[in-house]
Amino acid sequence: MSQWSQVQQLEIKFLEQVDQFYDDNFPMEIRHLLAQWIESQDWEAASNNEAMATILLQNLLIQVDEQLDRVSQEKNLLLIHNLKRIRKLLQGKYHGNPMHIAVIISNCLREERRILAAASMPVQGPLEKSLQNSVVSERQRNVEHKVSAIKNSAQMTDQDVKYLEDVQEEFDFRYKTIQSLEQSDKNSVLIKQEMLALQAMLNTLDYKRKEVLSKIGRVIHEIDVLMSNMLTEELLDWKRRQQIACIGGPLHGGLDQLQNCFTLLAESLFQVRRQLEKLDELLTRLTYDGDPIPVQRPQLLEKVNFLLYNLFRNSFVVERQPCMPTHPQRPMVLKTLIQFTVKLRLLIKLPELNYQIRVKATIDKNVSTVSNRRFVLCGTHVKAMNMDESANGSLSVEFRHLQPKEMKSSAGSKGNEGPHMVTEELHSISFETQVCLYGLTINLETSSLPVVMISNVSQLPNAWASIIWYNLSTNDPQNLSFFNNPPAATLSQLLEVLSWQFSSYVGRGLNSEQLNMLAEKLMGQQVSYNDYQLSWAKFCKEHLPGKSFTFWVWLEAILDLIKKHILPLWIDGYVMGFVSKEKERILLKDKTPGTFLLRFSESNLGGITFTWVDQLENGEVTFHSVEPYNKGRLAALPFADILRDYKVIMADNVPENPLKYLYPDIPKDKAFGKHYSCQPNEVSKPSDGGVKGYVPSVFIPVSKILNDSTDPHSPSDLLPMSPSVYAVLREHLSPTVIETAV
């Protein structure tokens, strides 16, 4: 079943989440019509490879054209219209930046997988629940409503200022007319009446000036309150959602809405600033005793400038955190002399700023890190922000060719002693720029979330553990001394994040039973993990009991195994994986002989094994587990083929495959048939190929179970047969038996 088919079967509350991240950037119609084709492409790799992204975009447009031809024959007018519009939209948006659509589609597919994983959980995780708080959604709507109201108030005040200007022009004209008269004419009754009328106009002017200043003051106050409270909270929430998304959590939408709010507030503040300038102009032409403009205008202008400074400073954000293109799902881990990308956005989108803001990137600027290691950034580290490179027209800049380079340390100073020291050192990528607009000069600075610098890819797993722990445990964006005394994490939240590692990296999250096993693995016993606190050392530094590796190293090796060797089986849900030996026996003991399950080895890094149940003639139930297969052996023979061709030789018996049903009762071929590399009878025919003069050979996994009680090997841990043992079998078995076994 395709991923999209699974999505369509979700409950309405999950479908609403899916609906939120499909828009004109990637319409849901295309996702629906091209579901299988889209899922068969490597969008993740294309998001960091422009040539590959260009080809995929061209192929996507070809696929849309083929759908257009199909629906044209069916005379579906509405669908024809929508597809034509979508094709034009996709070509226009992404022709100059094909990597952007690859990023969007990759993110959508990843978010679908996360939602599917969440739907399989009996209870929504605590972190995800907090991110989908209804109070937060209500605040978002309130912010948008208030920003719109402020914009309307500023525009209405414009009309008041224009009316004030008209009244003052009439007053000026009539006053100057009287002033131009001879002294004798000024004593006439009509002139005295005109003077009284002018005094009334002056009173009106005074009233209107006070009214306009009062309205401007209210607009400024409303902006101040909104910025100090709800807008600041919205921005902090977005940054927290970004942190969580970086470690595999839900995608962090909402930046476009924030940009709209910031831009409208900036436009309103500049509009108020122009209104105050107009009042200053009116002041130079007319003033009087008790005039409110010279008293109130300077304070209001100072407040407007202060708000503009703060608004611009808060609007300069890191839209996409530093990430190596070679490891798109491990952001904030950077390797020396390897390029990384990072994207920044100014949430105030004004045409006057296009190509006018140059951003400079530095590392560890004015920051005292816990490390003696120092770095510099090589490559293009100064670029101009523009509205042309982003598909949504945002004012942004993306650095694509930055490389961290470690500076030579002072004599004898290493600063990275110990196996975990390097991966617990946090560094910061900083960005600075200057905005000059309408007489204002504003210096802006922002920084990435803390990054970990590695010099060898072998340090990547522990570095990623540091990134997970930091972003799970703190909202502080710049606590570079965090690992001097890392806080404990709530076990329930950590387990949720671990499930995200699987849903984002290998396409399927963990269910409650699998998470329970991990909890027991971490705690060494059955626990109620809702409020349990787990230390950093327990997670990543202390070896598991009786093992030579940590919990995290064990889990990371499993992720790597799934990604490279058993991904389709994992996505289909046929790998139970996380189940203890004790639990697997409980599950299998009452099942039909030949029922088996797949689990990850607890003693071998990156190993997977299978255990099946059997029944002796006396009715006794026995269990057999094969020695775990690691990535080296799986590289030679696909795991699905191993399950199909696996043979066991009991004492003096013909080899046979003991694996019949995948737990609980799925016929083996039904579960894994589509993943077999070829049919078994196809590999045994000498005429099918091979080098001329030779009979083609195939690998067949074989184990031997000995009933001799003196045999030192335990039948519960079967070793695949070595070539020498298999040669002995060939000497004692006829070719017919061998062919049958194959």
Model description:
The protein is α+β, with helices and mostly antiparallel strands and 742 residues long. It folds into 4 domains: 3-120, Orthogonal Bundle (Transcription Factor, Stat-4); 140-313, STAT transcription factor, all-alpha domain (Glutathione S-transferase Yfyf (Class Pi), Chain A, domain 2), CATH 1.20.1050.20; 324-408 and 421-455, STAT transcription factor, DNA-binding domain (Immunoglobulin-like); 496-675, SH2 domain (SHC Adaptor Protein), CATH 3.30.505. It has 24 helices and 19 strands. It has a 5-stranded mixed sheet with strand order 15-14-13-17-18. It has a 4-stranded antiparallel sheet with strand order 1-3-7-5. It has a 4-stranded antiparallel sheet with strand order 6-4-8-9. Helix 6 packs antiparallel against helix 7. It is elongated and about 140 Å long. The model is unreliable at 410-419, 681-687, 708-719, 722-726 and 734-742 (pLDDT under 50).
End-to-end Cα distance, whole Å, is: 31 Å
Shape: elongated
CATH superfamily of the largest domain: SH2 domain
Number of domain units: 4
CATH classification, class level of the largest domain = Alpha Beta
- Give the oligomer, counting copies of the same chain as homo and different chains as hetero: single chain
Q: What is the gyration radius calculated from CA atoms?
A: 35 Å
Q: Pairing-aware structural class of the strands and helices?
A: alpha+beta
Q: Give the CATH architecture of the largest domain.
A: 2-Layer Sandwich
pLDDT < 50 stretches? 410-419, 681-687, 708-719, 722-726, 734-742
CATH topology of the largest domain: SHC Adaptor Protein
Helical run tally? 24
Helix content: 40-55%
State the strand order across the main sheet. Answer: 15-14-13-17-18
Mean pLDDT: 83
Topology, number of strands: 19
Largest sheet at a glance?
A: 5 strands, mixed
Measured by DSSP, the beta-strand proportion falls in: 5-15%
